Amino acid sequence: MQTAHMAIRRQARSCQRKGEGGRGSHRARPRIQTTTALDPNQMKALTFKRYGKSPDIGFSERARPTLQPDELLVEVHAAGVNPIDNMIPTGIFKPVVKFELPATLGSDVAGIVIDVGSRVTRFKRGDAIFASVFDLGRGTIAEYVAVPESAAALKPANLDFMQAASLPMVALTSWQALKERADLQPGQKVFIPAGSGGIGTIAIQLAKHLGATVGTTTSTGNVALVNSLGADEVVDYKQQDFETVLRGYDIALGTMRGDTIEKSLAILKPGGRIVSLVGPLDAAFARARRLNVVLQFVFAMMSRKIIRLANKHNVAYSFLFVRPNGTQLAKIGELLEAERLRPVIDKVFVFDQAKQALEYLAQDRAKGKVVVKINK
Ligand SMILES: NC(=O)c1ccc[n+]([C@@H]2O[C@H](COP(=O)([O-])OP(=O)(O)OC[C@H]3O[C@@H](n4cnc5c(N)ncnc54)[C@H](OP(=O)(O)O)[C@@H]3O)[C@@H](O)[C@H]2O)c1
């Protein structure tokens, strides 16, 4: 996974150098008019056509989604982007996350319900909603998306569409990692590396809301940001190694590839836990998804080393894959409305520049979230 990630970053950097995607290259790039499809049964969507090194990411005309009885048809006003949107076209998650090609990218959405299936009870036309449709074989960087009722929640009234679209994946992941998997209790210490990223900016706030003490890492320029989100112990990774500074942690989130997860063992108490969002994938994950025995074996092999090291430290390791959940998102929405959580947005791209949004995110420097505004 790390190799693929590095390849994406290299590709993004090379595009920037060639002036294909970077700021300042607007004049050189032919403008593509992509705001709306002309045929009312069609829509514009950012798609990839194949897995691998040349996924052919670009705008396509696609049929508007048709509704299942338990789904909402949502006119997309904004789509949040996440690192996995860059990983999926590489094919790295192909055995796990299923798409029919060409596939629409993106999984976070905020928009207006324009139609409802016959069995929908909680939403009506005109409702403003936000949702994650991650892992449901559809995408949100498009004019319309079908959203299962069970995945949607009303948009918090105090947020605009861009702010609401920035949150579903990172807020649900933080909720499922901290509350469900790690059972974070008031007074516990949780380590959330990369505090200035999409996950970090919301996970720090949620952990503080749950009464935890939060440690994080960030670069010098982002120390003030993570402090403003409530982080208690901030390690500037340009100056110090966190594993030499932090001690006595109960929980560590795995938010960074490389050796950060192994190094986290040094700061965890015996009986602590690591919840990794970046892998290695483990056999429990494969079993929970009912993957075949070959994949169960492969994932067991991939996680063998970290589980052995974790056992040695009397620490539990597990991998977590976020899932859509409208009930949890509604609870997150309440915290947002009560201003216990706030969105942190780095950059908003217009629909025409959705591909550049992905390239920007691939540089791994986003301070908070990157969002695509779908022009209305
Ligand atoms: N398993 C799941 O269900 C799930 C769900 C969501 C996300 N994820 C994964 O979680 C990871 C994090 O996602 P994200 O949305 O937070 O990514 P992101 O927003 O793209 O992360 C960018 C941030 O990482 C920071 N960073 C980069 N190198 C760092 C380092 N060496 N030390 C500390 N901070 C560093 C950068 O800050 P500086 O500029 O200060 O370095 C930047 O603010 C991704 O791999 C994503 O795929 C998994």
The percent of residues in helical segments reads 25-40%
Q: Any idea what the shape is?
A: globular
In the CATH hierarchy, the architecture of the largest domain is Alpha-Beta Complex
The helix count comes to 13
Radius of gyration from CA coordinates: 20 Å
CATH topology of the largest domain: Quinone Oxidoreductase, Chain A, domain 1
CATH superfamily of the largest domain: Medium-chain alcohol dehydrogenases, catalytic domain
Order of helices and strands: HEEEHEEEEEHHEHEHEHEHEHHHEHEHE
Briefly note the structural class of the backbone: alpha/beta
Low-pLDDT residue intervals, each spanning 5 or more residues:
1-34
Distance between the termini: 37 Å
Percentage of residues in strands: 15-25%
